[in-house]
Amino acid sequence: MVPCESTVRLCRSRGAFWKFQHRLGLPYVSDMFGGKVYAIKGDDVTTYLEKLNMPAGLLFFGSDLYIFTGDGLLKFDASKNRTIVSKGMDGRANPPLSS
Question: Domain 4-89, what fold?
Fold first, then answer.
């Protein structure tokens, strides 16, 4: 497994955002351009969710994880069941990336 610090640097270089705490005290990282959310425990980094469209903001509320993506606001319960809370997003909030 890749050491945590290396993974965090890699994710940050690709456009990741931090979520610092979960109900179990584990940090989570969303990889915006890789479409994944990682859970980090010590030196172990595991893929928690994948195949997401530009996941950015993360928020834990109880055991539910809310993720703001390019598709809208999604909610994942502790069993990773997905619920669409709101579709779409206002493009003014996230202007296109320049080349």
Answer: Thrombin, subunit H (2.40.10)
Model pTM?
A: 0.70
Tell me the Cα Rg of the chain. 13
61, HSE (Cβ side, Cα atoms, 13 Å) = 6
| Amino acid type, 32 | M
Domain spans of the chain, in order of start: 4-89
**Mean pLDDT, 10 residues at a time, the chain of 99 residues:** 45 52 73 84 84 86 88 93 84 53
